[in-house]
Amino acid sequence: MSLRVVVLRGRTSDRSADGAKGAQALGEALSDAPRLLGEPGAPRDAPWQDDLRDGAETIAAAGHELEAALDAGEFPVLLGSDCTFCMGSLPVVARRLPDARLVWLDAHGDFNTPETTASGFLGGMCLSAVCGRWSSGFGAGFDPARVVLADGRDLDAPEREEMERAGLVARAPGDVPSIVRGAPVFLHVDLDVLDPSEMPFSFPAHGGMSMEALRALLLAVAQSAEVVGLEVASIAAPGSAARVAAALEPVLPR
């Protein structure tokens, strides 16, 4: 199966310019001809409503590209500066691959809502939108029971309460392969699941895994489940693209 590697360069919730650069570097490490969509806008600290409005084209493009990959029988790999673009891609996964489990590897839950968020950061609200906890305008469709969130080591208290109401429990990364055994899996990897010693992040959280541990986890997932697609966010260090590509290799079709 061939790869469709898509670099979503358009601005969503970018707080620095490094995310778009890192996404492109990773795309070029994974493919000789990645699809480069959009132009990076100036990073800013904006209210979520402004980012939702101004990032709409990029968010929609994520859904269109995933749909096109599935139609063509390609393995989708979507890359972006932060998790916000998943509000376009994951509703397509829920609709087109209704049996798929979503494995969400992230230091954060991204499960705040407009009512619970203290920061107003749209990227911290995107998984809850996909799970129908608030309306982003891009759809939803993922039952939290089909979401495996790991490791979620940095959760806001109101966010944790929202997760409890939704029935979503943060899991240890090592438990993921057994949870999804035998199932089709779509992977969302926010690289800040890694420890900040591995590379800089906009929202660092100490206590994460090493690059080698991430590769081992992805290998275990690939051995226990059928990986049907991948998206990666928070590639904040362009110089680390080759190492990240090597860590992702176990889940890519050969």
What is the strand content?
Answer: 15-25%
CATH superfamily: Ureohydrolase domain
Got a strand count? Answer: 7
Protein structure class: alpha/beta
Report helical residue fraction: 25-40%
| The CATH architecture | 3-Layer(aba) Sandwich
| Main β sheet profile | 7 strands, parallel
Shape, per Cα inertia axes: globular
Number of DSSP helices? Answer: 9
Order of helices and strands: EHEHHEHEHEHHEHEH
The CATH class = Alpha Beta
By oligomeric state, this entry counts as single chain
Write down the overall mean pLDDT: 96
Q: List segments where confidence is low: pLDDT < 50 over at least 5 consecutive residues.
A: none
What's the arrangement of strands in the largest beta sheet? 2-1-3-7-6-4-5
What is the fold-level CATH name, i.e. the topology? Answer: Arginase, Chain A
Q: How far from one another are the termini? A: 7 Å
Radius of gyration based on Cα positions: 16 Å
Give the count of structural domains: 1
